[in-house]
Amino acid sequence: LYMGVSSALNTNARLSSKFSQGLAADLMSGLSNGCKDGSYFFRFFSNVLSTLIKIFDYLKTKLFPEHLGIENLLMDKDICQLWLQEALYLCDSSLEGVFDASPVLVERVHSCYIVGSLIMVRLAIIGRGVNISVFRDRYNGICKLKQELEDRGVCSTFRREPFVMQITGEPGIGKSQMAYRNMIHLLQATGLLNGDTNPIYTHPPGAKYWENCNGEPVLFMDDAFVARSGETFDSEVAALMALKSSALFTPPMAECDR
């Protein structure tokens, strides 16, 4: 299909018409003329891309199911129902005094918050006619409970979301080394530090792909908020948002590019 579309872009029409120079030439002509009569071609390209994406996603689910992340499973009705039941249970007032004595419950609150965040992202694109008030109310309850636990000092054993270290100073004074050392201390406190391998994967801010990530417990983006513009800045924002997933973020390069 891709080769056929590519050929069509450079194929002239057999019959004489106002669209006779070939799709590519006619599209450029429409752009230069203020997009007059160009809507046909924009619709054509939009449909072609949508079809290619659907075919790619279908083949991916059949050929490479292991590459599917947790976000591809969240629209299943059973999973959404289980999440609602978990949120109702954790927000029960009878558990208010149990969180201090049960670290497992704290972990469940944190996991419920992560999965709920992904569900709310998927629900955000649903039409206005669908009532999602139940999910929104439960999610707000989990967010409030998570914040209350953190204010009391009852936090999850592992943080599965990004946090920022703001260290200011002149270049060359060791800001990156200080941030690196702080992460080492955090790993030592959790008992995750293993002397055999480097526990921190440092991701260059300007890089697009994560092919060098090898399951390290910490993903470190140094100088992530240096003022940039264009594609580099967009890729950094996308990388930070991808870290919100509770699944190990090591997708193939094609997935990162999309």
UniProtKB/TrEMBL annotation:
Coiled-coil segments on the chain, per record: none
Residue ranges annotated for the SF3 helicase domain, each copy included: 143-258
Pfam families associated with the record: RNA_helicase
InterPro entries assigned: Helicase_SF3_ssDNA/RNA_vir, Helicase_SF3_ssRNA_vir
Gene Ontology terms for molecular function: RNA binding; RNA helicase activity
Protein name per UniProt: SF3 helicase domain-containing protein
Taxonomic placement: Eukaryota, Metazoa, Ecdysozoa, Arthropoda, Hexapoda
